[in-house]
Amino acid sequence: MALRIVLIDDDDDARELLAMLLGADGHQVVEERDGRAGLERVRRDGPDVVLVDLQLPELSGLEVAKALREDGSTTHLVALTGRAQESDRVATAEAGFDHHVTKPVDLAALRAHLREVAS
Amino acid sequence: MSDERQVTHLSRAAAHDLRGRLNGLVLLGALLDDHTDPMVQKAVEKLRRATTELTELATALEAAGELFAGGAVAAIEGATFASLLEERSKGTWKVTGSTDVRLVVDARALADALSALDSEPREVVFGSEGDVVTLRVEGVRPRLGSSPSLRGLRLELAAGRDAEVVIDESGLTVRVPRG
Predict the structure, then answer these.
(1) pTM of the model
(2) What is the rounded average pLDDT of the residues A97-105?
(3) Interface test with A, best of B16, B22, B23 (most A CBs within 10 A)
(4) S-S: B78 plus which of A59, B101, B129, B148, CB 3.0-4.6 Å?
């Protein structure tokens, strides 16, 4: 099943490549490059999944997740981050993320996770 | 900020940046993976190998950060460590020697570092010398063109400050304090 995905990452190369790959899988992917624009986009579009880098201009990924949960949003939130410590996983879970993916992204694992979300 | 906290902070920051830059390269490899041209496939294979090794470097930097973050390293029973090693390696290790020892080591980090080794057969021999526990792995083929290699570095960091890692022609020995 195709998912509606908002992908928020300020690394243009990585974001564009991931959007292309997920788009080729049949998902509808919308890209944003900063936290504030990403938050507004998610509030407006109500996607199935939001993939969020943590270190973003304007608003951090953690702030985006907290704001969405405060809104009452149940959108599936996935943190995409170079932070791999256990404490980072705790921080993303506490902020309201459903899943934590450490960069570099294991695409097969991410695809499997998205299949789970879709089902 | 103390020197040690500075090391932790810088190591984590460097690992974070490295992982971020690697992300684009890994995704580029994934995008090219469907191309059947043999030259493209060769390039993808080399790209994948490089990104795997650089990801190991990021892990080593994180381990360095943890090492200098302070906190006591717990002792673990030899048998428990052997189980952990098999679990982390998905059961591919043969364990010999007496595991009736306690070793002071970041067990998970060392198990992961040993699991990443390119060795055959995958056998670890437990031993002890006075206050030291030895873990011997024959047939390790580390890339030792430069010292320390990424894997050697990762092992050094995983084993801890009080550990010693020796890689000679026949294999690897890790010496860690006895608990």
Answers:
(1) 0.70
(2) 95
(3) B23
(4) B101
